[in-house]
Amino acid sequence: MGVQDRMKRYRQSGGAAGLVRVEVLVPASARPHVLAYAASIRKKHRDDRNELRKRIDQAVEDYGVRVLDNVDLSRLSDVSERARVVGKALMERGNARAFVIGRQLLELAG
After folding, report:
1. Residue 7 has what pLDDT?
2. CB count in 10 Å sphere of residue 40
3. CB atoms inside a 10 Å sphere around CB 109
4. Does residue 28 surpass a pLDDT of 90?
5. Alpha carbon 106 to chain centroid distance?
6. How would DSSP label each residue in the chain?
7. 11: pLDDT strictly greater than 90
8. Reported pTM
C-alpha cells in the first residue's frame, strides 16, 4: 500500500475521518487563539465519536441478537454510518427502550 493510499484510508476511516484541512489568514497575534480553538474542536469531535462508539457497542451488546441478525457492521467504515444502521434497526425491530436508544443514536450520528 502506497503513501497516498494510506493517507486516503486515514482520512476516510482513521483518526482523521470526518475532518477537513482549513487554511485561513489571521493576524500573527491571533494565531495561538485560532490553534487553541481548532484543538478544542478536534477534541470535541473525538469525544463525540468515542461516545457514539460506546453507545453502539452497548446497543449491540443489549439487542444485537434480536435486531441485528442480518446486519454486518464490519462492512461499514464510518462510525456515523454504523450508528445510523444500528439506530434504524433498533427502531424497526426493538421494544420501546430500543426505539429510544435508536433515536438517540440517529440524533448523535447527525
Report:
1. 67
2. 10
3. 20
4. yes
5. 11
6. --HHHHHHHHHHHSTTTT---------GGGHHHHHHHHHHHHHHHHHHHHHHHHHHHHHHHHHHHHH-TT--GGG--SHHHHHHHHHHHHHHHS-HHHHHHHHHHHHHH-
7. no
8. 0.71
C-alpha cell at 21: 484541512
User: Could you give phi then psi for residue 69, rounded to 5 degrees?
Assistant: -65, -30
Cell of 71: 446486519
For residue 30, is pLDDT > 90? yes
Are 105 and 90 a contacting pair, CB within 8 Å? yes
Res 65: pLDDT: 79
Report the distance separating Cα 86 and Cα 64, nearest Å.
9
Q: What cell was used for 32?
A: 495561538
Query: How far, in Å, CA of 76 to CA of 103, rounded?
Result: 19
Considering Cα of 98, then 72, then 58, then 9, what sign does the dihedral take?
negative
Fill in the amino acid letter for 9: R
Q: What percent of the chain has pLDDT over 90?
A: 34
